[in-house]
Predict the structure.
Amino acid sequence: MIRAIRMRVMGGTSRFFRIAIALSSLWLVLFALAPNALLLLVAFFTRSDEHFVTPVLTLDNYIRLFDPTFLTILWDSARLACIATVICLLIGYPFAYIMANVRPNRRPFLLFLVIIPFWTSSLIRTYALILILKSKGLISELLTMLGITSGPVSFMYSDFAVFIGLTYTMLPFMILPLYASIEKLDRRLLDAAKDLGASSWRAFVHVTVPLTMPGIIAGAMLVFLPALSMFYVPEMLGGAKSMLLGNFIKNQFLVARDWPLGAAASSVMTIALILMVLVYSRVSRRGVRNREGGRGSGGALRSEGGMR
Amino acid sequence: MKHRLFRDRLFPRFLAAIAVTLFACAGFALPAAAKDAASEEKVLNIFCWSEYLPQEALDKFTEETGIKVVYSTYESNEAMYAKLKLLDGKGYDIVVPSTYFIEQMRHDGLLQPLDKTRLTNLAKLDPTLLNQEYDPDNAYSIPYMWGATGLMVNKKFADPATVASWSDLMRPEFKGRVILSDDVRDVVGFALKRDGHSMNSRNEAEIKKAFDFLNELKPAVRVFDVTAAKQAFISEEVVIGIIWNGDAYIAIEENPDLAFVYPREGAVLWIDSFAIPKGAEHKDNAHKFIDFMLRPENAALVVEEFKYSTPNLEVRPYLPKELQESRLIFPTAEDLKNSEVTMGVGEAKAVYERLWESLKAGK
Amino acid sequence: MKVLGRIYLWAVYLFLYLPIVVVILFSFNNARYSTHWAGFTVRWYKVLAGNSQLIEAAVNSLTVGTLGATLATILGTMTAICLSRKRFFGQKFLHGGIYLLTVSPEIVMGIAMLIFFIALRVELGFATLLISHITLCLPFVVVTVLARLSSFDEHLVEAARDLGASERQALRHVILPLILPAVAAGWLLSFTLSMDDVLISFFVAGPDYEVLPLRVYSMVRLGVKPDINALSAILFGVTIVVVLLVQTLIKVRKK
């Protein structure tokens, strides 16, 4: 109720918002909506060798997707992206948490340090990872030197190498949103929880995690979505023994020149995304409700009871 | 109200910044004025793989003619084709497609016929590489570089003398240590050759049979390589597999335990050629450049830098001895017996692609 | 606990920087294709100096990256503020559009953009590249900033408004400072994306404006050359110097 009134008071008066909304809507219509609408259209067209597509409507492209091959590809990609996201979260969360708790004036520097390696081409960095992981590579030589292994060992062309590569490539996309979210966490809430007798672990699970949930979700999306269509790293480090969604789509557009099939596959990805966004908005709406409920004395701490 | 708006400067400044940027974009984006065809500007827009033309040769060309070389890159024939097709053959003056892409682009009307009277060094090219099926009489393309996909094996694990056939990839001692390339036509090509078929087969039964072999071979494969295969061979991640001859030359330099074999069923050949897109704005310069690269001393620079073969027959005197004598770079007719050039497969392309996907997706 | 935290922090940094160290090391490796150490040389830096095309591509990349990231950050931050603070017609659509952008495969975006530019008869070059990069980066900024705004304490804005601040003043003095870390993070992610994008850049780049990632990716066919390592090492060195310089400047100003 109060929120609704405030909205009405603030709304409509500001030119800034009107222009901002207009500008970003225009941009999105032009560059997000139009291409995707086009894509959806193409998915129902028929392929043509002359002009890529001919406007003959068909459902064939979707039917072709219900082929065990594509389902395997979809499953492999989703599994890979999922595991990569979880690993990134497990490594990134503590990292962002510690970083958000160092002296404020050192934080920007640490943040910069996270991102600088990523300004070197990812191909070059993946090549460097190969030099580290390969037989007689850095790790192999180190293990031999330490006497742990007798001969050269290789970590290349394995799932392990792929996950190292994916984690390495995607980690900052997890750390940065997490950091932005954890950094503004009110530490007094944690102290209050502890004063009320909660163990550190309980305080973390019931206060910190719920409050930083938007950051966790943002990070997870920024890792999961690109990882879903990423193919370069798994190909180079994993040996390209299975086909992934990103490569499948790219192949349809370039190698097989079957745009409609590629468009259909790509729209399947979009549907998966819409499902995820629905989940996301549910969670974030719950977050809003908690905050609203917490207004008054106890703040988020009191509302935290509702999270369980 | 007005007063307030001006005092709070964030907003106007913000708008100004965006306006300036948009105007700047518009300025850059305005279509360039029509160029005077009579006096071509001294620019040549090349569209090619990156590091595929020796820098030394480019510098020499600019020095000699005063024409500035603008070198744009692509990562695959497919990507180059898609872009040029969308651009309707405009924007670039020289492209370097492989065989069956020349056929396709010619067919699509994306290339323009070459003026051979201006290519004075044409006679120096190997006639066996000219007048190929993909471009009869070389009306649209001039070969620049060529090579063969063959077998490489590590002597520490097997005697190269015993390796002569594509079938040797299946030998049990190589299980889990085989490298194949990630290129569907290269891989299916050798599987087809192994069965004694053409590597450009459009016969579904033949293609299926080739894939049956590949499915059988897959458990033995350690990597479908997306980069140059030499790295995996040099660090002995793999013991046997397919590799381009130029890569093989470099790999052997680095690791003398390696050996290259031209398989008896025939190697898979590729030829990359210069061609001029239909909408090229600097076709005078493009002809000058092609003729320049056809000179033996410049072709020699290519061989020295990349270790791949040149179609130029007069190149040997300009090369160091070890390159001149290398059978890797200059294979004999015997080496290339039964070899074939990759060609388009028409509608069968979909069959190749579908079976390739299921090969990759299969466990 | 604190020591443990520090150790963890630096362990992750080690993981992030190890490949970079390898790249720098191998830029001094005296072998053209070798993946083994073959002695020290500065040859590749000399080769790089003669490779004007590569240097030009690097400069182009830096220009597009900086400008693209900045504009994407401005636009993205505005969008995020709108999305979190307003109820308006089409909000859901705007929100959806942002996520649509994240999931569109690069190849689709690249081809769609090229078709779009051809339809408008825009000549490919700097402008088309910039617009595409802004589009590529936009969702990443929005998602990052939105995450910070989504649990934003409305009381602060209310308090500012109660004290007589206009909406814009509240925006400038309350909201912006609070979301600054997220805005910075968004910029950094954008710049990273822009420096590494291949497929979109490939389709929208014109002949006279080539960017570094295209050159690097296309080297796959013949193998990566050491002068690229040298270039990466130089770029890395310059970045470090700039960051350290900024860091000291901030310290000096604070004193």
